[in-house]
Write a structure and sequence with these properties.
6 helices, alpha/beta, 9 strands, 8-stranded mixed beta barrel, TIM Barrel
Length: 233
Amino acid sequence: MARRKTSRQTRLRLLGVALLAALMLGGWLWWQLHHWQPARTAYPVQGAEIGVTDGAVDWRALKAIGANFAYLDASASAFARDASFSANLDAAKAAKLQVGALHRYDPCQPAERQAANFVTVVPRDAAMLPPVVELDMLGDDCPNPVSDAGIESELTTFLNQIETHTGKPAILKLTSRFQSRYKIAARIDRNLWLVRTRFEPDYAGRPWMLWTANPTLSSEASETPLRWVVVQP
């Protein structure tokens, strides 16, 4: 009976040690995920995507943790606008960061209305980085589904209009689900911005220019996690 009791106590101790080790490993992995930035030797130019959901940003601290640039959420669809865009634009410039604007494209809305929304929010400034168009929402989600050909045609119209405004070719921020559905990377010739946590993305079938490498970077620059982005050397 004593041997059984000792054996049971030993098993419980071992189980406790295993659970403690698992908790410590989980904590370490969490810390690594939320504080990881790609090596500067591999990606010398790095930055962040910033919007109203990030709350107040300490722009000097952002530069201090290694940001060379900031892409600012500016507009979405035909009517939505990021309330923090103007203030963020001024603050990013004051911190001497390169800055650009991003529009979240909505295949359910006409290209002309979305372009008008973007150009109303984003100033014509030759010093700004090329505009970015985020492609994530699918036409299948529209109240009235849009054909694949219709989406490509409207997107091309939108790109032409905002590029006329900015004077620079746009960058497509392409999610894996949009690419999987429409194969747009092979159909529209623009530089790409891809998204994948920690591991280099390859779902576009061709090289990318920008990569969101850590969408939940914890830092002293913001109370909320930042979307950390690197540039292909």
